[in-house]
Amino acid sequence: MFKQRLTYRLFLIFLIFALIFMIPLFLTINKELNHMAKEEAAINPLAPEVQEIHNRLFENVADNIVVFSFYFFIFAFILSLFFSKSLLKPIKALYRASLSIKDGNLGVRLDVAADDELGQVTKSFNEMAASLEKKTEELKKKDTYVSAMMDPLLAIDGDNAISDINPAFTKLFGYDRDEAIGGSIYDFLDDKNLEIMRSLLEQDKNDTSMTSEIQFIAKGGSPMPVLITLSPITANTNSSRKIAVLKDFRRERELIDTIKESRDYLDAVINSINDELMVIDREYRVISANRAVLERCGEKAVGEYCYSVSHKQSVPCWLEGEECPVKKVFETGETVRMTHRHKIEGDKEYFYEIVASPIKDESGSVVHVIELMRDITARKRYEEKIAQKNRELVTINNIAAMLSRSLKAEDIFGNVLDRLISLVTMDGGGIFLIDDAKKEMTCPYHKGVSEEFVRNMGRVKLGEDIPGRVAVTGKLIAIPDIDADRHITKSILKHSGIKGYCAIPIKGKEKIAGVICLLSFKPHIFTSEEERLLTSIGEITGMAIENIRLYEKMRRLYEYQRQRRTDDHKNLLSLSSGLTAANNIKEAADSAVELIKKSFRADLVWLLRRENNELTLRSCLGADIKEGEIIYLKDTTSIEQYAIDKRNPVIIHAIPAETRFYLSDYISSYKSAVSIPLYAGEKALGVFTLYYATLKDLTEDDIHFLQMAASTLAVALGRQELHENRS
């Protein structure tokens, strides 16, 4: 069929070519003959016979032309058959080759028989077939790649409709090709993600790829997070066709959500730290900070230099002479701890404990530094306060130890004054002691002041000037600057050059013993802690003075007791000697009564004898009473009878207050009494009693001596009675 059509076409071509050639020839010959006839007729009109000849000639010529044309057609037909055979062979080969390519045989190639146009066509066909085979192979590979893709791929045409998908799309979302192709991309998105996709698709002026996270609705209706990358199919910016690659983002979304939760938790943990935390780069800029820093400095802290945030400085802190922990971490790569002084609010100083730790990359180089700052201002102040307290305690302990080691006033007051001047950093001072008899104070101990000043100021009346007022009120007075104090109008200290002044009362348990004065030639503000400490030291010094006075009193008492024991020993010896030397009972009794009255300075002393439960006078000194007179009858409740019954001394501090005892008229006017019973074994010999006209308290030593005297007297009286009875 192809051959017949081509043969007809070639025959028609040759026929048309013959007609095109014969018709002009016939017309030309006819025109020339007619022209020749007209010229002849113009020269010489032709006879009819000649005209007839010419007409036949023209007819013969026309007939010959027709015959010639017939032969020419025959010749053209033969030529067309000849040329069609040579022309149809390569064309037929091209036809068969094109059919092979159509059937998918892209490896077919034709021989190039000539170098003419047909040969060029054949060569071009071979090149086209080779190129088509190569591109087909590439397309097959690409199709294989697309089909093997794990990520879904879809093509979107200019109307935002899906024109193609790969198998991964069906596998991930569940849509078949028939269900997906032809549908709008918006059909697979909810309202929120539809806007995101519309925004991506409308950016068709940009020939670069765009990536965004959206949620694609799967076949079951559940949204599935994917990462979509949208790219134009051609580089032509006018093209609206795009390729979309979808990546299953569920795992990544879970990881991102987990990371976000971890980051949020980490941020919450970091922000919950009360200490300030900053991340600092090598340019000493804060690249991250926790809430504690942001609350103090605001959001502007991030991006600022660390020394600007911490120190309010425009230059690094190490240029100001401070050691920088961040710089040290960058240099050493090790964690650094130190304490820094920061100025945060105005000129107010704060102390921070800083822990700077390195953040290293894979190679071990320090890229950032984490700086954790803890406000230890309160602790620092507390430590300073503790140190001050320790100094105060050391001073108090030293003073207490000094006071305990010595009972000499000159040692105590001199050392106390030196300690106080050093503790409060004063220039001098003095100690005033009160003379109760003269109602004035003198300054026997001083330091840092001239003798002339002491002569003028060293004697102060109680209630006068600052030391006198402190001695009366017992309250500390601290003056930062005497010249500037409006309350100090009358004082010898005014305009003396003394500025800071403090007067501390020396308090004992019962009264104020003196005043410690501290002075400075420049203003001095006394803190409440200093005032409290000075008051305590004043009280300790007062106790020391009382201890000194007590020591003196005890020493005097000791001397008194020692003398008393000596006297008692002498009196007992005298009593024993008198009783031994006595010739009779009366003489012995009188000797004993006299000694006892003298030793104890009693107003009345009598010795009563017990006979038949009656008490009769044996000896008396201090009243005119006859010997043998009955003082108390039988069963009379008297002091003496009570002592005999108890067999122990009876002490009556206030006789008028005692209503249980009967009093003899001889002793009714006395106030106090001491009655000592006399026993010889189990036998009561009598009793002797000391009476005082005033209230009197006898010591235990006195009672002990009286008992010894009673024992000695009882022994002597017993022997005398025994001796007299034998005689």
- What CATH architecture label of the largest domain applies? 2-Layer Sandwich
> Uncertain segments of ≥5 residues (pLDDT<50)?
none
Intertermini distance: 203 Å
- The rounded Rg comes to 72 Å
The number of helical elements comes to: 18
The secondary-structure class comes to: alpha+beta
The name of the CATH superfamily of the largest domain reads GAF domain
Biggest sheet strand line-up: 13-12-11-16-15-14
Mean of residue pLDDT?
Answer: 78
- Overall shape: it is rod-shaped
What would the CATH topology of the largest domain be? Beta-Lactamase
Number of domains: 6
User: CATH first level of the largest domain: which class?
Assistant: Alpha Beta
Biggest sheet statistics: 6 strands, antiparallel
Number of E-type strands: 22
What oligomerization state is this entry in? single chain
